[in-house]
């Protein structure tokens, strides 16, 4: 999902109405994306910021959202494991 894109394309009227929390609560696997950054004036970091607000996520929640994206990717298992280890290492250090 790309909250900025969804707002710009009028898929949702306001960010407060975005269905991301509903999908997550229903158990739907969601990933955060930036669609077309120049067109929508956003970045992947900004989309994660918006998603963190919508889902009321802390650092641990954002790390899990990132892990979900890696698991859903088409990367080879070895690459997925490496990236997840990097996320884990960063998340473990973020609380320090």
Automatic annotation (TrEMBL):
Known SUPFAM superfamilies for this protein?
Answer: Metallo-dependent hydrolases
User: Which of UniProt's keywords are assigned here?
Assistant: Hydrolase, Metal-binding, Zinc
For the keyword Metal-binding, the answer is yes
Q: Which residues belong to any copy of the Adenosine deaminase domain?
A: 1-89
* Coiled-coil ranges per UniProt: none
Name the cofactor(s) required for activity, per the record: Zn(2+)
The answer on whether this UniProt entry bears the keyword Nucleotidyltransferase reads no
**Family named by the database record:** Belongs to the metallo-dependent hydrolases superfamily. Adenosine and AMP deaminases family.
Spell out the protein name for this chain.
Adenosine deaminase domain-containing protein
Organism name: Pseudonocardia charpentierae
Q: What is the lineage of its organism?
A: Bacteria, Bacillati, Actinomycetota, Actinomycetes, Pseudonocardiales
């Amino acid at each position: 999902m790309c909250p900025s894109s969804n707002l710009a394309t009028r898929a949702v009227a306001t960010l407060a109405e975005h269905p991301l929390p509903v999908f997550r609560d229903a158990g739907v696997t969601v990933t955060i994306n930036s669609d077309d950054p120049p067109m929508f004036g956003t970045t992947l970091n900004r989309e994660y910021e918006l998603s963190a607000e919508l889902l009321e996520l802390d650092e641990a929640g954002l790390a899990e959202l990132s892990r979900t994206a890696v698991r859903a990717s088409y990367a080879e298992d070895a690459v997925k494991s490496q990236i997840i280890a990097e996320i884990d290492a960063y998340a473990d250090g973020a609380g320090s």
